């Protein structure tokens, strides 16, 4: 089992405004002393799930609480409990407005999407520890994996201040993203491979279930309003397949020698639970070579992906990272791996969007 702690800061910016379901009554004096709570949301996600148009079809949910700034030992008061924030009549709303009250420190956690997610169970918010947790099990069909996004915000509201700026949520990915690229080389001495027909690509021996927890980072961190601590723990045994991909519904895809093929674009991303990888992590590809114009018998070759991961990125998949593995089909029955590309999963890969409704 493996748990990784990560501090995440601001990524990119988008905007929403909202109003919310009140969890307690407020006197007229309390309402008069504050101003209405609103939210900003920055999101960064794969296009296959959400884009600048479809995000309005799916709400995010908010958890929120406050505590006396001068008396940290006092009891916590919850304001939001999985409160959905939806786009309605041209605006982002959440029901009856909540209002800021001076002398308190507020903490918020947001999660997207606020809809039923296949494989997501045991979601729980713990009030005093300001922590959201859930268990996620990857669907057997990788295309049904949900791009889970989380964010936090903390703010102090002092007497005499008017918190006119909305609470900003800088959403970040809770999962990791994978892609694979195959390069086809002309192989053989007298016989030359003109193309290969790739019929199957599989990746197996991964952990497909774990528990995720998120809470605001300790006060005093570099960006204490936005930083959070995220942890994946209680991983299942690493024996499950991640995907069994058959291009074109099993008919395969033909790649000419000297060319390459990208298996999973941003519209067809493979998402994985961040984890410490194991030595039996394997990738298998089945293909048919055409040599001197004649199709050969099907060949299946297996490569150990763990050694590549261990050498190049510490043998783990981390929260919010994108991993691109490139390999070459060389001589018969072997795979030659190139150096993988590991980058933060955000807008430089064409996957983020900006919402400006206000």
What does this structure look like?
With 358 residues, this protein is mainly β. It has 2 domains: 6-174 and 208-235, no CATH class; 176-206 and 238-345, Immunoglobulin-like (Sandwich). The protein is built from 2 helices and 27 strands. It has helices at 28-33, 305-313; strands at residues 6-8, 39-42, 60-68, 77-88, 91-93, 104-112, 120-126, 131-137, 149-157, 167-170, 172-173, 176-184, 193-206, 209-216, 228-233, 240-245, 253-256, 260-262, 270-272, 275-276, 282-291, 294-295, 299-304, 316-317, 321-329, 335-337, 341-344. The strands form 6 sheets. The protein has a 6-stranded antiparallel beta sheet with strand order 5-4-3-6-9-11, with no helix packed on it. Strands 12, 18, 19, 25, 26 and 27 form a 6-stranded mixed beta sheet that branches. Strand 4 (77-88) and strand 5 form a beta hairpin. The model is unreliable at 1-33, 43-49 and 347-358 (pLDDT under 50).
Number of discrete helical segments: 2
Average the pLDDT over all residues and give the rounded result.
77
Strand order of the largest sheet: 5-4-3-6-9-11
Q: Which structural class do the helices and strands define?
A: mainly beta
| Helical proportion, percent range | under 10%
